[in-house]
Amino acid sequence: MRLTKEPFYLPVGREIQLFEAAAAGRLPVMLKGPTGCGKTRFLEHMACRLGRPLVTVACHEDLTTADLVGRYLLKGDETVWVDGPLTTAVKRGAICYLDEVVEARKDTVVVIHPLTDDRRILPLEKKGEIIKAPDEFMLVVSYNPGYQTILKDLKQSTKQRFVALEFDFPPPDFEAEIVCREAGVDAGTAAKLVAVAGKMRALKNRGLEEGVSTRLVIYAAILVKKGVDLNLAIQTAMIKPVTDDQVIQKSLEEIAATLL
Ligand code: ADP
């Protein structure tokens, strides 16, 4: 995917300069942070800024090496090699984004190792071929440390192949500006939704597994923009998606009510 229009991204710290330095130094990058806090948007913005195509792979536990690298397929009575997204990205000098890399199987993750050190190669074992990555190729993974358990975590031997940029929910003023821009609501509405989100995030680990994402705050704002009452928008977009526990839902509604 090559984006023609640079997606809006509001920098929160020095992430743009750091990413540019990593790209110039041909270093692989890990974007760390909770879901829905702007990692993907940041990368889309950076790909556009750097003028490189972006190839995104959503990782899951059934993702095999062949899914990433490619495989021989039968077409008519011929077997033809079909590149996987990683191979395509290497050949095109693209940014390859492995979203939620920890979800991928351990034996699958290993295939990226030779691309993440100074060899910068991708061995296509089934084809008996080795591809050398051009300077423009960049590997980026996202990783949510909040989800990890002892059983499901990246190995140190994988982690220590990336420079890490840490993301979190943007500070309130920034988040309100993002919500205004993305949903087209007025500053007052955005500030209220962000204040509710802030209170809800303070409950993380006290009943809530993960703080409400910026994405959901934007969804609530979009509902408001479409005429839904503020309270109902908060319930529908910011409370119900994050917890199934009705007691917690009720107390979140009460917290929200005190701020509106
Ligand atoms: P994830 O961290 O899960 O990849 P996304 O990048 O999809 O999250 O972020 C969710 C939404 O939040 C984006 O679509 C975008 O609208 C918004 N967003 C979050 N942070 C920013 C930011 N700094 N600048 C612009 N938009 C942002």
Automatic annotation (TrEMBL):
Residues 175-258 form the CbbQ/NirQ/NorQ C-terminal domain. GO terms for molecular function: ATP binding; ATP hydrolysis activity. InterPro entries: ATPase_dyneun-rel_AAA (IPR011704), CbbQ/NirQ/NorQ/GpvN (IPR050764), CbbQ_C (IPR013615), P-loop_NTPase (IPR027417). It holds the Pfam family AAA_5. Residues 28-162 form the ATPase dynein-related AAA domain. It comes from the Bacteria. Keywords: ATP-binding, Nucleotide-binding. PANTHER family: DENITRIFICATION REGULATORY PROTEIN NIRQ, MOXR FAMILY PROTEIN. Belongs to the CbbQ/NirQ/NorQ/GpvN family. This is AAA domain-containing protein. It comes from Desulfofundulus thermobenzoicus.
